[in-house]
Design goal:
This is SCP domain-containing protein. The protein has helices at about 1-10, 15-20, 20-30, 60-80, 95-105, 120-130, 140-150, 155-160, 295-305, 315-370, 380-385, 385-395, 405-415; strands spanning about 10-15, 85-90, 130-135, 170, 170-175, 175-180, 195-200, 205, 220, 230-235, 240, 245-250, 255-260, 270-275, 280-290. The chain is an alpha+beta fold. It has 3 domains: about 1-310, no CATH class; about 310-375; about 380-415, no CATH class. The strands form 4 sheets. Strands 1, 8, 10, 11, 14 and 15 form a 6-stranded mixed sheet that branches.
Length: about 425
């Protein structure tokens, strides 16, 4: 029955997230992620941890720390597929700082004791409504700690970070203690619309979001999850890996699936994940990438066996040459057509000009010939009968001759006979 359900199940893939360009991920990682491995973040106290001698909050550049913290927070959400940005609400500054101060002196506790040093009402309020982190000297570093959420099968800190309803927060830290406001920071009216939320996220991912050890739980939330536990398959570079912690349902605001695969997280490793419920199968791929390596999207996609979303400079040159060739051919054809039309028009004009000129020339010639035409010489027998009359008549009606004495000579000739 389960096999039939899986065969008929709808496959859900977030191709836009899985298919993100590596260059886009790395660009935002380099500009917005302030929790890189090896990066020193002592924003709470520039010279390490302050001495525990009095209940006062050491001054630090909170504006700068807030900027780095919120950018890191929004990067983690964005790479997961949550595109709406969280903003900082400074209304809760005092409660967050009071909580961080208490935790720095007494350890992390969501329910501060009145008998402990640096207890206050604000500390109680802040610690009871916040994510708490220890060992983080900046809000950005604390975000990464919340994301890992070590040692707890119910990773509520991470789920708060990746909540579809979160809209705002507030940071504060003292020494290595950090408080991130969570309660009351969400809205239930318009949660972010997305098919599923997975951690680690789909697509190219920096190594900080996939720890090398197996102590971090993987989590998944899907819009159409059923009440029956899914079958989870994880492949590393095409080979299935064991699932150390079997899939289980957890509840933290929303129900989620937790599982822990036995993986080796290395640069340029690919993970294919399939989470199969009875009616829906969710599929996505994770690609661990080192953003400090200069590599084109095309080269990376070829190396990882991804559908290419990039292009090499050789292809760019080839396409440019092809485009230029096509443009030149089109221009050549257009010019030839235009030139041909000009020649045709010129020939037509020339023909009409020559025709009109010929007509005028013919008319002129006809007139000239008509005006200066020399009549043929009269036959002798005509003038033998009526010589004078004929000559007289001829003289009046005949056009002037080129030889004006010819008529008179003829008359004299006949008179002498």
């Amino acid at each position: 029955m389960l096999l039939i359900s899986l065969i008929c199940a709808e496959v859900i893939e977030m191709k836009l997230i899985t298919g993100r360009k590596r260059s886009k991920v790395c660009s935002r990682y380099n500009s917005d992620f302030y929790a890189k491995w090896g990066q020193k973040n002592f924003d709470y106290f520039p010279f390490g941890y302050p001495p525990k001698d009095q209940c006062s909050i050491p001054k630090y550049n909170k504006t700068e720390d807030d900027k780095k913290g919120i950018k890191t927070y929004n990067f983690v959400r964005w790479i997961t597929g949550l595109n709406d940005n969280i903003f900082i609400n400074d209304t809760f500054h005092d409660t967050q700082c009071a909580c961080a101060l208490y935790c720095y002196y007494n350890g992390l506790n969501h329910h501060p004791s009145e008998s402990k040093k640096c207890y206050s009402t604000n500390a109680s309020i802040g610690c009871g409504t916040s994510n708490l982190a220890g060992g983080s000297a900046s809000s950005a570093a604390a975000i990464l700690g919340y994301y890992y959420d070590y040692g707890d099968p119910n990773p509520g800190h991470r789920l708060w970070l990746l909540s579809r309803s979160m809209k705002q927060t507030s940071f504060c830290g003292v020494g290595g203690a950090s408080a991130l406001k969570t309660f009351g920071m969400a809205t239930l009216d318009k949660p972010h619309e997305i098919d599923f939320v997975a951690s680690p996220p789909p697509g190219p991912v920096p190594p900080e979001l996939i720890p090398a050890d197996n102590g971090v739980m993987w989590t998944f939330w899907g819009r159409n999850m059923s009440t029956t536990l899914p079958k989870v398959t994880v492949k590393q570079n095409g080979t299935a890996v064991p699932i150390v912690t079997a899939p289980y349902f957890g509840e933290w605001g929303e129900r989620f699936v937790g599982f822990r695969p036995n993986i080796t997280a290395k640069i340029n490793t690919k993970f294919d994940v399939e989470i199969a419920f009875e009616q829906f199968i969710y599929k996505y791929s994770i690609y661990i990438t080192n953003c400090s390596v200069d590599m084109s999207d095309y080269e990376y996609d070829q190396m990882m066996g991804r559908k290419s979303y990039g292009i090499t400079w050789q292809q760019i040159v080839t396409y440019c040459i092809l485009a230029i060739t096509i443009v030149v051919l089109i221009l050549g054809i257009v010019c030839a057509c235009i030139k041909g039309q000009i020649i045709c028009v010129a020939s037509s004009v020339q023909y009409k000009t020559e025709s009109n000129s010929s007509t005028r020339s013919t008319t002129k010639t006809t007139i000239i010939e008509t005006k200066y035409e020399v009549p043929p010489e009269p036959k002798p027998q005509i003038y033998s009968v009526t010589t004078k009359t004929t000559i007289k008549t001829t003289t009046k009606t005949t056009a002037p001759s080129n030889k004006p004495n010819s008529v008179k000579a003829l008359a004299n000739k006949f008179n002498n006979k």
